[in-house]
Design goal:
alpha/beta; three-stranded parallel β-sheet; two-stranded antiparallel ribbon
């Protein structure tokens, strides 16, 4: 998580340098949209510093987990997890995301044994889904074998 926060901070610094190059006073509205969890954890703490450096910037931060139309909704910067579909927009990778596979002890007591990732086919698994995206598959890597499982 700290790594991702550092990358978001570097992205904001890049914005600062671009602004410094184009004018001596940074002012105006900055509309940012960010996924809720990432925004609360990584972006909100950085905005205090940014706003102290640029007090004439009015930041409108929208923390939401829906897909947005940046052009139609007048969003200047959007920070999201995932891939940008074919678009005329410019994307920059800020970091990597990893997940954790977990279950409650109560669930595991009555569930089939888990020895390999393919055993998950016999389990009740939760996946993320919204109107436009279904993240319903996992990729596992083995450090012992150095390959995908």
């Amino acid at each position: 998580m700290l790594k991702e926060a550092h990358k978001v901070e570097l992205a904001l610094q890049t914005i600062e340098h671009i602004s410094e190059d184009s004018q001596s006073i940074v002012a105006g509205d900055l509309n940012i949209s960010c996924a809720s969890a990432q925004g609360r954890v990584h972006l909100v703490p950085l905005l205090t510093r940014f706003l102290s450096l640029y007090p004439k910037v009015n930041v409108n931060l929208q923390l939401e987990d829906r897909f947005i139309d940046m052009v139609a909704e007048n969003i200047d910067v959007s920070i999201r997890v995932g891939y940008l579909p074919d678009s005329s927009l410019i994307a920059r990778k800020l970091g990597d995301l990893s997940g954790v596979l977990c279950a409650t002890p109560e669930y595991l007591t009555g569930a089939p044994a888990l020895k390999t990732p393919s055993d998950l086919l016999h389990h009740r698994c939760l996946f993320y889904r919204n109107k436009k995206l279904a993240m319903n598959s996992w990729t596992f890597f083995s450090e012992k074998r150095g390959r995908r499982l």
